[in-house]
Automatic annotation (TrEMBL), chains A, B:
Organism from which the protein derives: Robiginitalea biformata (strain ATCC BAA-864 / DSM 15991 / KCTC 12146 / HTCC2501)
Gene Ontology biological process terms from the UniProt entry: methylation; RNA processing
InterPro entries reported in the protein's UniProt record: Alpha/beta_knot_MTases, MRM3-like_sub_bind, Ribosomal_eL30-like_sf, rRNA_Methyltransferase, SpoU_MeTrfase, tRNA_m1G_MTases_N
GO molecular function: RNA binding; RNA methyltransferase activity
PANTHER family: RRNA METHYLTRANSFERASE 3 (PTHR43191), RRNA METHYLTRANSFERASE 3, MITOCHONDRIAL (PTHR43191:SF2)
Span of the signal peptide: none
Name of this protein: rRNA methylase
Pfam families: MRM3-like_sub_bind, SpoU_methylase
Length: 237, 237
């Protein structure tokens, strides 16, 4: 039995303003909650419809779960965690940066991609969707536990890094050659506007994904997948 | 002014059973409707809040639009089109096949990817989400007008094709080498179950996307993006 006021407080974490006010976020599902616990994050609260399967959790009924959950089909496990303090970026190896990505599913998929390709740091412009949004967390499939997401002004941060900045554009150089690459920051633009002016001004190199058909563009997550794959392929040897 | 009964009929096309019964589908937004018209498809009905901007359309009010639209923010243009008759697959060049992909956003992104990489035919297992689902259409960004989507039993169709069948699996051979590739059929599995048994039995070759981190898997659309990119890269020379 979870108190009504507690359910209401958990539910408020669906919204960014309450996440900021409380300094906490809500994670759902055994996979995501499990990976956050594995990463060493201390939960503020754990709730499960089968508490014997999740040590330290308190029981929650299906009805209570529906009141607190952000999912259409709640999966039986809720965790409330503190939002980690922002840490400084280290810029080790490659960094991915996002310039105004708005779609939660896209951001989640991009975080999962970073985890796959061993990119530990994701730099986001302040107008990128919040990484603790429940839809983002769900789409990361647990990878949020291993990728550090930092929100910062892009132009300033790119300048301060002193690293080469790579961006994608239809007018860029076709990727897939055997050119050597210095590790740096790959910036992906927003779904509707691409890269902003200040970021475009800072590109050391622009890349194009060769097209063989008539689509005008690629979804930001699929474009990033190809570019991260190519970075790893070209520098593997 | 659009009659209530007509709005109700348009709205019914949000559901697959009514699309099948009527043999029609609903497209929304100037880009998608425009690309379908450009492809030569004859509309059954065209509706616009600014009919002077869309020849052949009849006026529709914002209120009527909200009643007929499948979008949270309707974009002012609706088109009702006949579902094209199924055409036989030609298997020219590369074909993409999907084995039980359920998420509408993923299917739409995959259709857009086919269009980008010049893959004209997409073979889908009967349990793959319907390509005329409004969310699929929206995610194709108009590419549905240029990619032929065919629903057929996969095992039978793969056998009948006589072509090499390629699939992705964690245990496959790492892609990115310089091995020659014969054109064939690339099969992607469902989000939750991967490739089904009968399809796995028919693979000529299984590929793995090299991983550099700890994510257990990639989203189906991002994995397909990398594999299609690699196919084009490896056969470009």
């Amino acid at each position: 039995m979870v108190a009504k006021s507690e359910l209401k407080r958990i539910r408020s974490l669906h919204q960014k303003k309450y996440r900021i006010r409380e300094g906490q976020f809500l994670a759902e599902g055994m996979k995501l909650v499990g990976e956050l616990l594995d990463s060493g994050l201390e939960p503020v609260g754990l709730y499960s419809t089968a508490p014997e399967e999740l040590p330290g959790s308190q029981p929650i009924t299906e009805g209570e779960l529906r009141k607190a959950s952000a999912l259409v089909r709640p999966s039986g496990v809720l965790g409330v965690f503190p939002i980690p303090d922002p840490e400084p970026l280290t810029f080790e190896g490659w960094t991915l940066a996002l310039d105004g990505v708005r779609d939660p599913g896209n951001l989640g998929t991009l975080i999962r991609l970073c985890d796959w390709f061993g990119i530990g740091e994701l730099l986001c412009s302040p107008d990128t969707v919040d990484c603790y949004n429940p839809k983002v967390l769900q789409a990361t499939m647990g990878s949020i536990a291993r990728v550090r997401v930092v929100y910062k002004d892009l132009a300033e941060t790119l300048d301060a890094s002193g690293l080469p900045v790579y961006g994608a554009s239809m007018e860029g150089e076709a990727i897939g050659g055997e050119q050597p690459l210095s590790p740096g920051i790959l910036v992906m633009g927003s779904e509707s506007h691409g890269l902003s002016g200040p970021v475009r001004d800072r590109l050391s190199q622009t890349w194009a994904i060769p097209s063989f058909g008539r689509a005008e563009s690629l979804n930001v997550a699929t474009a990033a997948a190809i570019l991260l794959y190519e970075i790893r392929r070209a520098t593997r040897k």
